[in-house]
Design goal:
The protein is of the alpha/beta class. It contains seven helices and 14 strands. The strands form two sheets. Strands 7, 8, 9, 10, 11, 12, 13 and 14 form an eight-stranded parallel β-sheet that branches. Helix 2 runs parallel beside helix 3 and helix 2 runs parallel beside helix 7.
Amino acid sequence: MQRYFVKNEAIINDIVEIMGDDYFHITKVMRMKCSDNVIICNEDKSWLCSIKEITNDSVYLKILEEVEEKKELPIEITIAQGIIRKEKMEEVIDKITQMGALYYIPIQMDRCNVKINSEKIDKKIERMNKIAKEAAEQSHRSKILKVKYPIDFIDMIYLKNNYDLCLYAYENHMNTKTLKEVFSNRSYSKVIILVGPEGGISDKEAKILNENNFIAVSLGPRILRTEVAPTYILSAISYELEE
């Protein structure tokens, strides 16, 4: 069943108003009609709704019942990644949204060969959040991944106290743990995982990460592209934690 995310202000009593791109999708792409049913989410709850009225610019839905769903990973995962090319970043956001990540933070790191134009950053973040919304709807999630504004590597280190567990994917460390070993302890609720840019994590950055209690994890015997690594990580976590 088709799914759409709405803001709280779109819901008044038991009526939901859909406008904009979602209106176009319902009326022109899906060609839905009155009495057709959809799922509506506001990231706190999900409802089964029926189309009540279609006007020139809005679709009005009536809430029929709340739907109990278990669509999210049992832990909150943030993917932090060295800034990569726009096309690859959009691919990553699409995939990790489908895989269950909740936040994505682009990080300016030593070996990043791409810099985001600060004058265009608002539009880029808006576009990436739109990609995340569409991926969440397609994969029937009940929450949308949120793309954060880029920050410097050191600023990411300062975020460590917001998480129960801080990891970084690294191939040049003698004492890396596997994801299976790390997640054998299921007591974590908020986890941040850093993936380097195309050039990888520098030795200096690795030293800082170790000094700040980030745990180095291995992604297996093969070296993965930076755009593949986050999907691998989330697949492994899902395998370990979801039944």
